[in-house]
Predict the structure.
Amino acid sequence: MSIEKAILPIKINELVSLISTKKKLDFADAMSYLYTSNFYKKLFDAKSKWWYMSGLNLYKELEKEKHKLQQTDNQFKKEKMLSIFCVENYRVLKKMEAVEVHALFKKLDVYGFLTTNYDVLHSQGEEYILNEISAYIKNHNQ
């Protein structure tokens, strides 16, 4: 038996116990928290030898991944809200149906434009954003 096969169950048990304690989760939820992470797969990487780390350090690494995923998820939610805001306001401005605006935005990748330029656009007013979208559409319709 290899060392990783022998030590991994011990490390996973320690890690699940830490997750359960720190996150106030029952055992099954703590296992789900670990098993649904990419970090769990890293534990089996023979080259990185993650299993040599203490349980607390393993927990910290897992939390880094979860935090990064949460930030990505939060950003995605904000970008979705901007897209919905733009569809609804563009619809009113152009007197179109939402499904028509959606089809146009999808066809011309306005959604990609909004995502790429989110940092600038989300801090601007409605008129500025709609003017930018209109200019983008005009340039991509030629």
